[in-house]
Design goal:
Radius of gyration: 15 Å
Shape: globular
Helix content: 25-40%
Strand order of the largest sheet: 5-4-1-6-7-8
Oligomer: single chain
Order of helices and strands: HEEEHEHEHEHEHEHH
Strand content: 15-25%
Largest sheet: 6 strands, parallel
Length: 178
């Protein structure tokens, strides 16, 4: 477990909804396009299991993404993501709609992003997180920067951080060694 600063502990303990961008956060940011136009994306299983553990700990999950790739919709269903906003160009409006649907305040939201298009949500949520390869301006607005890269365990790191701050991580992990 990592050592949390008092400020990070306070912010993460309040989270009731984790919101994610996709490209560069759940993936490494690269998009493979087949000759027929189909997009291919790669997701990390550590991130997926972290999201399932976080959901089991009572935190809702959501995606707000600017793209509309069928592979993401499939992954959303596999992981049981609570809310999925795709093809979104105005993330601020989607964020307001999402908060209302989820019944949470801004302070109860965490958002993980990697680019300036994520800032309209990041600058208003309680726990703004960026991945290390994020755009430099986005990094300036993050309360936490993950050690792991996007698509390589960054989301799992955030899930663990939230569960740790809420006092739920140790019990969740210990379930696997009973």
């Amino acid at each position: 477990m990592q050592t949390l600063t008092p400020e990070l502990q306070r912010r993460a303990a309040a989270v009731k909804l984790l919101i994610l961008d996709v490209d560069g956060v759940l993936t490494d940011g690269r998009i493979f396009i087949r000759d027929d136009g189909e997009e291919i994306k790669s997701f990390h299983t550590l991130d997926g299991h972290g999201l399932k553990m976080l959901q089991a700990a009572g935190v809702q999950t959501a995606i707000i993404t600017g793209r509309d790739a069928p592979s993401v919709g499939i992954r959303v269903k596999q992981l049981g993501i609570n809310y999925y906003f795709k093809g979104i160009h105005d993330k601020r409006a989607a964020y307001a709609e999402l908060r209302q649907a989820a019944g949470v305040s801004e302070d109860e939201c965490a958002f993980v992003g990697d680019d300036v298009v994520d800032l309209p949500v990041m600058v208003h949520c309680g726990l703004p997180v960026a991945v290390p390869q994020a755009h430099w301006f986005t990094l300036q607005h993050a309360a936490y920067v993950t050690q792991n890269d996007g698509g390589k365990g960054a989301v799992r790191e955030v899930c663990d951080l939230i569960m740790q701050a809420q006092g739920k991580l140790e019990a969740a992990l210990n379930e696997y060694i009973k």
